[in-house]
Design goal:
- The protein is of the alpha+beta class.
- The protein has one domain (6-163): Gcn5-related N-acetyltransferase (GNAT) (Aminopeptidase).
- The chain is 31% helix and 33% strand.
- The chain has helices spanning 16-29, 41-54, 97-111, 126-134, and strands at 6-10, 57-64, 67-75, 83-88, 116-121, 138-148, 154-163.
- Strands 1-2-3-4-5-7-6 form a seven-stranded mixed beta sheet, with helices on both faces.
- A hairpin with a 2-residue loop joins strand 2 (57-64) and strand 3.
- The structure holds coenzyme A.
- Coenzyme A (COA) binds next to strand 4, helix 3, strand 5 and helix 4.
Length: 167
């Protein structure tokens, strides 16, 4: 088996801009992530840097050839069952990066005594639901109209959860 060309690194002030660019690409696709497109990348990066400094987010990015190609963010990492969000650049999907980021997050969560990891996914986001099912997450709740969109509408989401204490 050939070694992957990408590596995973801790989310840090220096890689926030690249992480936001990956999020922007996913937002632009529409219907994948909760972040609406368009958004101001500089404002978002500043908010993320502030959140990192305050300890309100935790996470990792994937690098390939010096470029950031994936982002994984845990929100409110002090909670017992924190929520996360993630995106992999279109150019780098289906190479195992999503799976590797989840494995990294699960190891972090176990090391920090978390009881579970959770995420919210749109019901029709099959690639993401498939990734989460493949990595041990199960549907925990259907949350109708839980996400407010920029156009004034609301979207349904599925809350998925992976319990960590017993596995
Ligand atoms: C969902 C997403 C993160 C998957 O990342 P990825 O790096 O491509 O995932 P991986 O290569 O690690 O795939 C792991 C497994 O997930 C499942 N999977 C991933 N993409 C899939 C797809 N397009 N169709 C079906 N299954 C898929 C498969 O079981 C896959 O295993 P396999 O390749 O051995 O069959 C990526 O498609 C993405 O960034 N999408 C846009 C943003 C998004 O939807 N984020 C999640 C919001 S909740």
């Amino acid at each position: 088996m050939t070694e992957p060309s990408w590596t995973i690194a801790q989310k840090a002030l220096a890689n926030v801009d690249g992480a936001v660019a990956v999020l922007a690409e996913a937002a632009e696709e529409g219907g994948r992530v909760a972040t609406d497109w368009p958004f101001d990348l500089k404002v978002r990066a500043r908010m993320l840097r502030s959140a990192l400094l305050a300890g309100n987010v935790e996470g990792w990015v994937a690098y390939d050839a010096g470029n950031i190609v994936a982002d994984f963010t845990i929100f409110n990492p002090g909670e017992a069952e924190p929520l996360f969000g993630m995106a992999v650049a279109r150019s780098h999907r289906r190479r195992g990066i999503g799976r590797a980021l989840i494995a990294t997050a699960v190891a972090w969560a176990r090391a920090h005594g978390k009881t579970a990891l959770r995420l919210r996914v749109f019901p029709d986001n099959e690639p993401a639901r498939e990734l989460y099912r493949a990595t041990g997450f199960v549907d925990a709740a259907f949350q109708p109209g839980a996400i407010a969109r920029a156009d004034g509408t609301v979207a349904d989401v599925i809350l998925m959860r992976r319990v960590l204490m017993s596995d």
